[in-house]
Design goal:
heterodimer, A: about 240 residues, six-stranded mixed beta sheet, B: two-stranded antiparallel sheet, 2 strands, globular
């Protein structure tokens, strides 16, 4: 498969005053795949994300390419439109984004589709601030999906979920991917990374220290060292399971 | 079909209730002839309209502006000056007044939207106050003594009447038209953009909304409405002075929306209908007994509402059993699912028809 990657980043750097948050990071994302980005807290994952999304510009970059990309993202700290119903949350996204709805009916129709797809349809009349964390995380994804992206960026979409909810979220992400959306995700939950990602990028102190399949990355001695063995245990559990 | 029947029944009931409400307002001047009462209703109409203009910024977009009286003043001054100095027709000048206020608001606030939250509010106050000071110190604007409109015979073309009743109807029409415009905005793309910005600007930017663009749109719409109310005010009072632009006036326009429920398009109307007659009643009955007591009582009412019902009267109503009773027994409102299905059915049939 020698298809051109959707995202190709070379030498991405971000400095906040004295602190170098991301230093000379290069990687690529294959079209139609799920790429994961892991690393300890403060490794610069979200910063990298934010730069690619255009949330803020990188300090330095050598090359930076995406082939005609329509992106959408979710936020690590959820940003639901609290005082609007779930339906209205998604309608707002349908009016904008990459295939903006022209009429209200069109927006409602598309929103209904997305809500059914993400399993929020039954709760469409609930105010989003009244929902629990798992549903709000789902809503984040629904709102991003409603903009009809080709590439979806998920920033720690499973943090704070219990195992059942995590499994449901993994299932949903897989379905989104199968519908033809390329996914780049940041995740701490190794179960999710292992079962979803075809490629994993590991960041540590703002630098890329490993890249490869989940298997390769987890067996990398430096990665194990960074994670102080805790993730090796995780890995054993995985193998048992 | 069942769905169609239920929905059209609901629509009919809704139309009857709204029609009855309107009929009460239309017939009111026929029954009540006291100019004092009529005057109170005219106040209700134009202050509620101003409050709706505030609501699109403060309620829908979450940008609290406390300088709305300045736009109204600019509108009123434009009308008075152009009519007296150039002799234009007031109706034509009303359009000019809207253009002028919209333009001034857009140009001044476009760079101000890097400021957020309270800083935006401060700029709006400073803007209103500097406009007022500018007018007080300018010979052209008649300094502190203001500008008057010419008196004369009653004439619709000049929007000039000795009786208050024509102004009553004009005010009513103005309020209803602005309400319909607001309702329309609330339900379309602009409304969703503004509400998304209110909830979270980053989230808005993430789905492709340009926050600055839509905030400027909101400011301009708000200012244009205020400019038109300025025209109405000038024609009614037939005189305008810089006192119209004081801070207290701007606050007065915020209250109906806050008390009625700032998140709802109907909020300013409900709040205006309650708060303005209340304030007039308190002034008429208690100010003689103990000067200032009316203001204190007004403040207490306001504090109670904000303390116990921060979402306003409508915020309370939306969750109440009273609403359930009205929806089920009087309006016979079908469930949301049925309404939705009905809308989609209409949409499908229209799509098929094309």
């Amino acid at each position: 498969m020698s298809e051109k990657p959707v995202i190709e980043v070379v030498g991405l750097t971000k400095r906040f005053k004295g602190l170098t948050a991301v230093n000379d990071v290069s990687f690529s994302v294959r079209k139609g795949g799920i790429t994961g980005m892991i690393g300890p807290n403060g490794a610069g994952k979200s910063t990298t994300f934010n730069m690619i999304c255009g949330y803020y510009p990188p300090t330095e970059k050598r090359a930076y390419e995406y082939t005609n990309m329509k992106i959408a993202r979710t936020f690590q700290i959820m940003k639901p439109l609290k005082n609007l119903t779930v339906m209205d949350n998604v309608i707002a996204s349908c009016y904008f984004g990459h295939a903006a709805a022209k009429t209200r009916e069109e927006a409602v129709e598309r929103a209904t589709e997305v809500l059914k797809f993400t399993g929020l349809y039954e709760k469409r009349h609930v105010l989003s601030k009244e929902m629990g964390t798992p549903d709000q995380k789902r809503l984040e994804m629904a709102r991003a999906l409603a903009t009809k992206p080709e590439v979806l960026f998920l920033d720690e979409n499973m943090a704070g979920l219990n195992p059942t909810e995590t499994a449901e979220a993994i299932e949903l992400i897989r379905r989104i991917n199968q519908s033809g959306v390329t996914i780049l995700l940041i995740e701490h939950i190794m179960q999710a990374v292992v079962s979803l990602c075809e490629k994993v990028i590991v960041l540590h102190h703002g630098e890329k220290i490993a890249e490869g399949t989940p298997e390769e990355v987890m067996n990398d001695p430096y990665v194990m060292e960074v994670y102080l063995g805790t993730k090796a245990e995780d890995k054993e559990e995985k193998e048992e399971a | 079909m069942d769905i169609k029947k239920a929905v059209s029944g609901y629509h009919r009931n809704l139309a009857i209730v709204i029609g009855a409400l309107l009929a009460v307002f239309v017939l009111l001047p026929v029954v009540i002839k006291t100019p004092y009462i009529i005057n109170i209703f005219i106040l209700v109409f134009y202050i509620s309209t101003m409050s709706m203009a505030w609501n699109i910024l403060g309620g829908m977009t979450g940008q609290n502006s406390l300088g709305l009286a300045a736009y109204m003043g600019i509108g009123a001054y434009t009308v008075c000056l152009v009519v007296t100095k150039l002799g234009w027709n007031p109706w034509a000048v009303s359009i000019l007044a809207m253009l002028v206020t919209g333009l001034i608001a857009g140009v001044i606030f476009f760079p101000c939207f890097i400021l957020q939250g309270p800083y935006f509010t401060l700029v709006s106050i400073a803007f209103a106050e500097s406009m007022r000071q500018f007018i007080i110190n300018s010979e052209f604007f008649g300094r502190a003594s203001g500008v008057g409109l010419p008196f004369g015979e009653d004439s619709l073309a000049q929007f000039r009447f000795t009786s208050k009743v024509p102004y009553y109807y004009a005010g009513l029409i103005m309020m209803v038209v602005v309400y319909i415009i607001m309702k329309k905005i609330d339900n379309t793309k602009i409304g969703f953009a503004l509400k998304t910005i209110r909830e979270d600007e980053d989230a808005a930017a993430a789905i492709g909304i340009n926050p600055t663009k839509y905030k400027v749109i909101a400011v301009v719409i708000s200012a244009v409405i205020a400019g038109f109310v300025g025209f109405f005010y000038a024609s009614y009072i037939r005189y305008v002075d810089p006192d119209l632009m004081v801070q207290a006036k701007s606050t007065e326009f915020v209250l109906p929306a806050v008390v009625g429920g700032a998140a709802y398009v109907e909020g300013p109307l409900v709040g205006g209908l309650i708060m303005i007659p209340l304030s007039e009643f308190l002034r008429a009955n208690f100010a003689r007994v103990l000067p200032g007591i009316n203001m204190i009582m007004y403040a207490i009412v306001l504090l109670v509402v904000i303390r116990f019902r921060p979402s306003g009267i409508l915020g309370w109503y939306m969750d109440s059993d009273f609403k359930k009773f009205i929806d089920e027994k009087i309006l016979k409102k079908p469930s949301l699912d049925i309404l939705e299905e009905y809308q989609m059915m209409n949409y499908e049939s229209r799509k098929g028809g094309k």
